[in-house]
Design goal:
This protein is mainly α and 331 residues long. It has one domain: Orthogonal Bundle (ABC transporter involved in vitamin B12 uptake, BtuC), CATH 1.10.3470.10. The chain contains 14 helices and no strands. The radius of gyration is 20 Å and the shape is globular. The chain starts with a helix and ends with a helix. The model has no long low-confidence stretch (mean pLDDT 83). Keywords: Cell membrane, Membrane, Transmembrane, Transmembrane helix, Transport. It is a multi-pass membrane protein. InterPro entries: ABC_BtuC-like (IPR037294), ABC_transptr_permease_BtuC (IPR000522).
């Protein structure tokens, strides 16, 4: 693909993805156990709607859609940053264990120390960040090895999963409240949860836009980046810190939703190229589209049951991961 074709495709994607986000957001507001037309939604927002529609939209669906947008954006940007830092198209906060680190911290907080639940986002961040550093350290051998990252991530995932299961065995009387969270989902999320995560998510996403130059320099390779005056390891740690922060934010509210950070950045990269000036903001929007659409499908297509969105995304993301593993050279 020549530069002119790529530029045209980028312009098209820049238009299409925001439009898709608007469409899926309205889809999330209209569809459910009680279908609501666009006219009725407009009436709700102009103070002329029916009370039952107003309660459904304002108390249930709107906060859920907004949380889905922030969750998808955080996970997709986290994956994009990790893929750049580790130069590995299979890097994802869920696959390599970063989300599991935040998940363990969240499980400890919710089950063992519920009195500190107001500290859930920073504690989930600490868990995600510690796990990311551990995996990166285990995979380091005069440079990061993609194969070692995957193997270390699988091992750490298994270990943290075992610890979480052990905690749930010891505190079996408190497990029921955390099981939906472990499956990953937005059921029952409200304005309280949105207010809980929004400040952290907005700060993290804005900070991610400041890392575009660093991420692009890392794409050049260590030697070229050093020649341009970049402090490689310092920037790597900062990017890992930010990726873990974003993953921890999403985990703290939405639970263990996987594969968003793998599928979305990879798809955007195929469409627009490696340049983080396009990759990062478009991944942000693409992640929001994927989570909101998947959550709406999960809660409306299986009525009267509501499938956790984490299960649906795993069913979609696992085959995609296996495809990449088969087609891409990762070592």
């Amino acid at each position: 693909m020549n530069q002119k074709q790529r530029s045209s495709r980028r312009k098209l994607i820049i238009i299409v993805i925001p439009v898709l986000l608007i469409i899926v957001s309205f889809y999330g507001l209209t569809y459910g156990s009680v279908p609501i037309s666009l006219r009725d939604i407009w009436a709700v927002f102009t103070n002329g709607g029916q009370p039952i529609h107003e309660k459904i939209i304002m108390n249930l669906r709107l906060p859920r859609v907004l949380i889905g947008i922030l969750t998808g954006a955080c996970l997709a940007v986290s994956g994009a940053l990790l893929q750049g830092v580790m130069r590995n198209p299979l890097a994802d906060p869920g696959i390599i264990g970063v989300s599991a680190g935040g998940g363990l911290a969240a499980v400890i907080t919710m089950i063992v120390l519920p009195q500190f639940s107001y500290l859930l986002p920073p504690l989930a961040f600490v868990g995600s960040f510690a796990t990311a550093l551990l995996i990166y350290g285990l995979a380091w051998d005069k440079g990061s090895s993609p194969l070692k990252i995957i193997l270390a991530g699988v091992a750490i995932n298994a270990l943290l999963g075992a610890v979480m299961n052990g905690i749930m065995v010891f505190y079996s009387d408190r497990v029921q409240a955390v099981l939906p969270w472990l499956a990953g989902g937005l059921s029952g999320r409200s304005w309280h949860h949105l207010g809980f995560m929004a400040p952290y998510a907005i700060i993290g996403l804005l900070l991610s836009l400041l890392t575009i130059k660093s991420a692009n320099l890392l794409l050049l390779g260590d030697d070229s980046a050093k020649l341009l005056g970049m402090k490689i390891e310092m920037h790597r740690v900062l990017l890992i810190l930010l990726a873990a922060f974003l993953s921890g934010i999403a985990v703290s509210v939405a639970g263990l939703i996987g594969f968003v950070g793998l599928v979305v950045p990879h798809a955007i990269r195929l469409l627009t190229g490696e340049d983080y000036r396009y990759l990062l903001p478009l991944s942000m929007l693409g992640g929001a589209v994927l989570v909101v659409l998947s959550d709406t499908i999960a809660r409306s297509w299986f009525d009267p049951l509501e499938l956790p969105v984490g299960i649906l995304l795993a069913c979609l993301g696992a085959p995609f991961f296996l495809y990449l593993l088969k087609k891409r050279r990762i070592v």
